[in-house]
Write a structure and sequence with these properties.
Elements: E1 3-9, H1 16-24, E2 32-38, H2 44-54, E3 58-63, H3 73-83, E4 92-96, E5 100-101, H4 106-116, E6 120-131, E7 134-137, E8 150-154, H5 155-160, H6 170-180, E9 184-195, H7 205-217, H8 221-235, H9 241-254, H10 263-281
């Protein structure tokens, strides 16, 4: 199976060489890697060019945008800029962050997961962060969720869900739509990805409100948003984030922000979330 990778990158000179080297070292090498340099002011582009001169499947695309880091929209706009440069001769499309070290068998394993079941729409491993010299699981999500840092999609599934939404919550709505269209989301605990920069390291106060807005635009409704907000705030060990998330939800509601999903999809998502919550309680 052919796989293409798109890597949005903004000021990643400290990490991107490690990420690209881990791709070059894969037992199943990608057919194409597009790095989208999104307005970097450091040596990101020069490092990518160096790799591109050594590995013909690596390409650099330049993008200009505002320097402000807003989770979701900025990174997915950069992803789409790279995706537009690709042809359609792929079986798997991957959105990858520029601050990862992947195990050498990562994509060989991912390909085998897709090959083993034609109903698998998405597949991925788990993120690990360094703490006191040890690599520990970055435990922010359920074990059946694939982190936004490394998303691999079967082409048919990717197109059916309408590709990626340029908004915060894109890496949750993709999986929910996957399930809506009856695709499977598969995670493999043997695939340990080193995440060199903890999630949310660059987020500001505006971005914190964005999480609540994301819950609103996913069609969660207040009850599910309150539970999801409390859980996420506790996982991040920052209980007061709960109030930021709730404010973000009500702000989006008062502004009548458009949902990322249809009314039918929103109903499915609420039922799915409630079912999962009940399963954990009983």
């Amino acid at each position: 199976m052919n796989y293409y990778i798109v890597i949005p990158a903004h000021n990643e000179e400290a990490f991107i060489a490690l990420t690209l080297q881990s791709l070059a070292d894969q037992t199943a090498v990608p057919a194409k890697v597009v790095v989208v340099d999104d307005n970097s002011t450091d040596n990101t582009s020069a490092i990518v060019q160096e790799f591109a001169s050594k590995y013909p499947y690596i390409h650099l695309v330049q993008k200009t945008s505002e320097a402000i880091h807003l989770p979701g929209s900025k990174v997915i706009q950069a992803f789409h800029k790279g995706y537009e440069t690709l042809d359609s001769n792929y079986d798997i499309i991957v959105k990858l962050d520029a601050d990862l070290i992947l195990p050498e068998n990562y994509f060989e394993t991912i390909i085998n997961i897709f090959k083993s079941d034609p109903k698998t729409g998405m597949a991925g491993g788990f993120a690990y962060i360094e703490k006191n010299g040890d690599w520990i699981l970055e435990n922010l999500t359920d074990k059946d969720h694939i982190r936004g840092a490394f998303k691999a999609y079967r082409k048919e599934c990717f197109l059916q869900i309408g590709t990626l939404k340029p908004a915060m919550g894109w890496d949750t709505v993709d999986e929910l739509l996957c399930k809506f269209y009856d695709w499977k989301v598969v995670t493999d605990q043997s695939l340990k990805v080193k995440h060199l920069k903890p999630t949310g390291a660059n987020y500001n106060k505006t971005a914190r409100y964005k999480q609540g807005e994301a819950f609103y635009t996913l069609g969660y409704g207040f009850f599910i948003t309150a539970i999801a907000s409390a859980k996420l705030a506790m996982l991040k060990k920052k209980p007061f984030l709960f109030f930021d998330y709730i404010r973000g939800f009500f702000k989006a509601q008062s502004q009548k922000k458009p949902l990322l999903v249809t009314r039918e999809q929103a109903k499915f998502i609420r039922n799915y979330r409630l079912k999962k919550m009940k399963a954990k309680l009983f």
